[in-house]
Structure formats: structure tokens, C-alpha cells
Amino acid sequence: MKLGQGNKAFDLYVMMQKLGIEANKFVFMCALQICGCEKGASTGRIIHDELIKSGYELDLSIQNTLVDMYAKCGSLAESCSIFSKQQERNIVSWGAMIAGYAAHGVGIEGLETFRRMYQKGFMPNSIIYLSVLKACGSIEALEQGRLLHMEIIRDGMHLDEVVGSAIIDMYLKCGSLLDADTVFEDLAIKDVVSWSAMILGYADQGHGQKALNLYSDMLSEDICPNKLTFLGVLKACWLVGNLRQGLYMHSEVVSQSLDSDLVVANTLIDMYAKCGALNEARHVFDLLSSKDGVSYNSMIQGYVQNEHSLPALDIYSSMRCRGIRPNKVTFPTILKACSNIRALIEARQIHANVITEEFDNDSTIQSAIVDMYAKCGSMVEAINMFERMQSRDIVLWGTIFTGCAQSGDWQLARQYFLKMQGYNLKPDAWVFNSILTACSHAGEVNEGRWYFLSMIHDYRIKPSADHFNCIIDLLGRSGRLDEASDFFQSIPEQLDINGWTALLTSCRSYGNNKLGNECFSEAM
DNA sequence: TTAGGGTTAG
User: Keyword set for this entry (predicted)?
Assistant: First the structure.
């Protein structure tokens, strides 16, 4: 088990049972640890039952291992239930519980458990500090992290390079790059972990160039990069848009035989796609023998970000054919692909997939569906989803109005304008722009005028060039060329090319060459 | 029995 061959070790455990040899406490502990890293919670529960039958459930080490096993399997509820029922606890019990919270991003509970540990008179050791630092990082609790850092210095543990890199990581995750720099500079031993933590942290915070500089500093210190260093550097490459360096890093990855590593390969796909090198991304994707959901998501996203919606839909189909389930990252992306090319039939199918995968209550995905139906021109379906949603922000309302604008449905726009007021939401400049566009497409002059005036007087929104253009377009399309021209002349400082275009197009549609020529020479 | 750095969206 300690050599990482958990499955083989577990086979021995099964064989032992078949031979009728009773397990002792150490065998149970090993079996539980294998469940924590390989077998999962369902096997863990079976072992748990078996050890209860053998009378080991009151043993402190066994209880601690159970807390750890359930936490590692992601079942914090079961972990917490055992921990809270413990009659007696030692530092390991507290450590296992805090590590569980920290690993799953439940930082507040992690810190709270740490506080309770103190109250019960336990002094933290370096292992406990590592988990609490992780908990702080996971919730970006910078002030708590600083206090912890001071405590660690007081206990003299900051000189340990393992604790040191955990402190660096905490500061980076909390966004305090200066603190991370200071701690890193003071580290007596800078190893590949602390260097990589710095590189990854800077890249995560969006500082690509600094991450690349750190990487060359690291090389000049003769530290050999590993998998995690590459993850940071690859991210830095796309942040600064340096495809050439990305290609070079790819060759470095290959020279360390890390290109078959799933996480590295996924990062390569993402790096190439974000640099716009779709062929290279696809090459890595195709060569990857066992793709996971992230591989598919990264490839789909790469296509969508570069406006290649059809291949994105193809990858989505093959993802489903191979039984890889789309998730909360896949859906917003693939729905956007449908919107881009107005693929309503495919979009409906994907909406059905959202329901079967039980993501239909996710507000981000719901918003994406409203947007997709509106952009695909199916306002009935867009409204249907919109009405089902629990909470709607101004952007989502705007999506409905944009849909109305595209389909020229001024009556629907009016209905939702009134509805919005019922929710005490103030329409913004963008909403008015959409409503005016809807009126203009429908030739509703009076309606459009009313909104324009209401926007200025009731909502105190200063009209932009887009709003003026809508009005010119509205007047021009309905043949009121003189009115349009007068309106146009009254606001010369607001004119832009779209306004001139709207006016000239209307002159042409209505065969008014005289006005058209006048406008043209004025525009010139 | 608890232990440092990990990929995809908006």
C-alpha cells in the first residue's frame, strides 16, 4: 500500500477474508486507507461495517482513519459524524478533520474546527498548520492567514521549507503577492515545490510575465522543473499570448515524458486553444488515449472561443458517444456554440441533456439557455425558461430585451418593460437600446419615441449615439425622412457612422435622392 | 492514523 499499489494490497485483503483469516486493527486501517485513495466510499462503508462486527469501532486510531477515509472520498458528512461522536480525540483526530475541510474548500468549518481544537487545549504541530493554511487559502481569508503566519513564526516552524511553501501558497491564493514574495525571499531552502507554487500562483493571479521570469530564475538556480512547474508556465504562456514559448514548453514536457499525463495534456490543449492554435490543440487532444471531461471541455471551449462552433458541436457529440458526461462547464460553452450559429435544433437537444444530467436548476446554465433561445430567435422558449428562474439579474432581463430587439417584437418588449418595473428594477441604457431596436424593426414610431423620452426624463439616462441611431433608423424606416433628417441635424455632436448609414439607407429605400445627396455631401 | 504546489466557464 505504501508503494502506491493499493489495488494489489486490497486483493490481498479480499484473499485473506476468503481464507477465513480475521483482520486485526492494522489490517483494517490499511484497507480504509486504500479506500481513501483508490477504492472510494462505497467500499469504505463495507469495511466500516466489517470492523464494527469485529468490535474495533471504539479504537481511537481506527476512528481517526475513518474520519480521514470519508474525508478523502469527499463524504464530509460521514467524516464529521464520526468525528463528532468521538469520546476521545488526539491531535491526529483534529488534523484529519481539518485536513478534510481544507481539501474540499470548506475553509470556514476548517478554521472553526482549528479554533475548537485550541479551546480543548491541543497545541498545533506543523501538520495541523499545513491544513489550516490550506483552509485559509481556499476561502481567501487573508487576515486569518496573517495571524496564522505570526503564530507559526512564534512557534519557530516558518523555517521548515514545507511549512514555508504552504505559507507562500496561502498568500498567493489570498491574492497577496507581496507577502508571498517576502516569505519566498526569506526561505532558506527554495526547492522545486516553492518555486512552482510561486509560478503557479502568479499565473493564477493573471501575472503571466512575472511567472515566466520566475521560471527562468528557477532554471538559473539549477532547479529542475516538474509537472506542476509546467502547469504554471503553460498557463503563463497563454496569459501573455506567447505561442512560441508555449511550443517550446511543450517540447520540454515531452522530453520529461509528461505529455501522457492527463492534467498536463489538458493544460496543453487549453494553452494552445487560448493562443488561437487550434490545430495544435486538436493534435494534443487526438493523441490523448484516455480523455476525461476536462479534455473535452477544453477542446470545446477552444473551438467556441475561436468562433468555430460546428467542430465544437462535433466534439460534444463524440464526448457523449464515449459516455463522458457533460457538466456545469460544458453546458454554458456548448450553448454558446449553438447561439453563435443559431443552431436551434441542436440547442433543444442540448437543453434536453441539461435536464437528464440534472443541471436544470443551475442558475448559470439557466441564464445560458435563456440567452441561447433568444439568440436563436425562439422567444417562446426563452421566456419559458426565464419565467422558471428563481432569481434574475439585470443582465438576464437585458437578454430578453435583446431577443425582442432581434425578432422586432415590440409588444413583448413592452410587456416585459412593465413587468420589470413591477420588480422595482431600473432599466439601463442597454435595455432601452434593445427596446428601441425592437420598435424600429417593427416600425412602431410612437412607441419608440415614448421610450426614448421616458429614458431621458424618467430614468435620467443620457442617450448615447446608439440610442440616437435607433431613433433615426425608426423614423427613416417608416418613411419619415424629413423628421429623421431634422432629428439628425439637432444632435450633430452625437453623430457616428451608424447614424449616417441609417439615414442614407432610408433615403435609398424611399427613393429620396435629393435628401440622400445632401446627407452624403454633409457626411463627406 | 493527520502532511507543501494541480487542468476546463461565467
Answer: Repeat
